[in-house]
Design a protein that fits this description.
Length: about 80
């Protein structure tokens, strides 16, 4: 089942959506990411971990750096030995 909604958006968001081949799919994907994030935050809270925006920013910075090729190669070697 689907439901039609009407929303007001900032100009930059509307412009981005105008460039998408399927606006409904783009919005659905974005909302589902937010839903998953909320669920993850709740799971972390239940485990005694409070996710802060500063902590998220640190992890985004850390994860933005590609994994070095030699580390990937070593991981593949280790997986090959385990299998």
């Amino acid at each position: 089942m689907t439901v039609k909604r009407s929303v007001s958006l900032p100009d930059d968001v509307a412009q981005w959506l105008d460039q998408q081949p399927n606006v409904s799919a783009a919005i659905t994907a974005a909302v589902r990411v937010q839903m998953a994030r909320g669920h993850l935050d709740e799971v972390l809270r239940q485990a005694g971990i409070e996710a802060t925006e500063a902590g998220r920013a640190r992890w985004r910075e850390r994860l933005s750096t590609p994994i070095p090729a030699e580390a990937l190669a070593e991981g593949r070697r280790m997986l090959g030995r385990a299998g």
